[in-house]
Amino acid sequence: MHSRRIFGSAILLSLAALGLTACSSDPQERYVAELRSSNEVPANNSAAVGRVVLLVSRDASYAEYSVEQSGLSGGIRGGHFHRAAAGANGPIVLSFFFDSTTGAAINTPTPGTTDLELQGSIGRTINKTQLDAILADLRAGNLYANIHTPQFTGGEIRGQLIKQ
Q: Which of 153, 154, 164, 149 is nearest to 72 (CA)?
């Protein structure tokens, strides 16, 4: 199990380097969440790991984020930003997944269909309207990201977004 975690960490470091390259904005603010099962409420025993990097533009008119994951117990049933302090659960404020045709949020995707699951990472842009809805909570440390699977319906891995 220890070697699995090391291998997963090596993959995440490689993906993180790619994710930072994909976020091409000129950021004023940088936030990072290390996704771990021990951060879930309640904590669980998953060996999965992940990382979210969120970059806010200088004028706060948009943000870009990347998400990486490795070692999940099964297909992804959801990936979201939630409003709550560390150690508390909170409501979904923004999904990682959107319908490519309509742009509508997909809060519970079908396992095996998301690019985060199939490729291990995603990169997205948050528009001004979406950013305005989360910016105060982000700056106050009251925003976390997590990924849900069929085995861990409340969330398999989670991390608080912390300003770097």
A: 149
